[in-house]
Design brief:
349 residues, alpha/beta, three-stranded antiparallel beta sheet, 17 strands, binds iron/sulfur cluster
């Protein structure tokens, strides 16, 4: 028996309910997953559990519905989403503080490198600047040529603030697996290397510190996201969930630089905000134009504001401004929160 009728039910602080138009969910921010719940249960959890013990809540329902209600709370306790407390303990369990900040002006850099393009991008200056801005994560995407041509990049970061370098590159049959393993062993800041267009798909966890993954994918490297790319990912953790309350997870404090050195919000953006050979990164990222999408959280976007995934959905295309306070969602998403269906899905799970 996991129900205590005279007690109050309390969700763990890291299990946060989110209401959608058709269904709700509990985002388990510590265990990185979510569980769908009906909207009726969301209302009970957020409006009644604080003030009433279970037996008082149950008394408002018919006998048949009391069985359903009991099964909901059984599920919540069995899945360790919450616990039962006495009235006297009610003030001891505050909600999670969901404010967000981060000690870096730019948290992530996406850098496109094309060694065959003949461009004269000043990478040394760029990386000095990135280090000063406190950036911890860099994704380097090589659209041609081998990534080991740019070893000065990885050497530069060996003793810097930056923690993680992810490399995406094209398959090259002259570079076998053990070649990349040696490369990753030498440049430890690179902790993920994905080789695209390979004849096979495989993930290999290397026995290195920090944990490092060498991945081969048969798929082609997507050089630029566009409106037909399905570019949505869900990231369920405290940091993103807090950031998503007031910011756009894909754009906030992110910087993309294309192979010619033009600074953008994302690589396929047609607009650019200057070239790193002519203007400093710091100058660009503090301009209101560059920051246009940073604070467009999903509550400001039509349809997304009614979606239960809105606090951990990362979509890689910009919203479109509708009026001063409302935006339209990117075309890349086809989820319908009003029916809780993805395209071709007949019923919601
Ligand atoms: S409607 Fe689509 S883009 Fe918007 S929050 Fe939901 S899944 Fe994400």
């Amino acid at each position: 028996m996991s129900i205590f009728p005279s007690k109050y039910f309390r969700l763990f602080a890291c299990c946060v309910p989110v209401k959608g138009a058709r269904r709700s969910l509990i985002a388990d921010l510590q265990r990185h997953h979510y569980q769908f719940i009906p909207n009726a249960l969301y209302e009970i959890l957020t409006q009644q559990c604080e003030y009433q013990p279970f037996h008082e809540i149950a008394a408002k329902f018919s006998e048949e519905d009391q069985g359903t209600l009991a099964s909901y709370f059984q599920m919540l306790t069995e899945n360790e989403f919450g616990f039962w407390i006495a009235q006297a303990e009610k003030g001891f369990f505050p909600d999670l503080e969901l404010t967000w900040d981060y000690p870096a002006k730019i948290t992530n850099l996406i850098l496109e490198v094309d060694p065959t393009s003949g461009s004269n991008v000043n990478y040394s200056s760029l990386f000095e600047q990135i280090d000063l801005l406190g950036t911890k994560d860099v994704l380097i995407q090589y659209t041609s040529g081998p990534p080991d041509d740019f070893v000065e990049i990885y050497r530069f970061f060996q003793n810097k603030l930056l923690k993680n370098i992810e490399i995406r590159c094209l398959f090259d049959e002259t570079k076998p697996e053990d070649y990349w393993e040696k490369f990753l062993d030498t440049y430890r800041r690179v902790n993920q290397l994905t080789v695209y267009g390979a004849p096979f798909s495989r993930d290999k966890k290397l026995n290195l510190e920090p944990p490092t993954i060498l991945t081969y994918k048969k798929e082609k490297l997507i050089k630029k996201w566009n409106s037909s790319s399905r570019a949505i990912a869900f990231t369920v953790n405290i940091k993103s969930f807090s950031e998503a309350q007031t910011h756009n997870l894909f754009f906030n404090r992110k910087l993309a630089i294309d192979s010619k050195g033009f600074m953008k919000n994302f690589l396929s953006q047609e607009t650019h905000y200057g070239n790193i050979n002519e203007i400093s990164v710091a100058e660009v990222i503090q301009s209101p134009a560059y920051q246009e999408y940073w604070d467009v959280d999903k509550n400001k976007i039509e349809i997304c504001k009614d979606c239960e995934f809105r606090f951990f959905c990362v979509d890689a295309l910009p919203p479109v401004k509708k009026n001063a306070s409302l935006w339209q969602r990117p075309f890349s998403c086809e989820y319908d929160p009003y029916s809780a269906k993805w395209p071709n899905e007949l019923t919601f799970p």
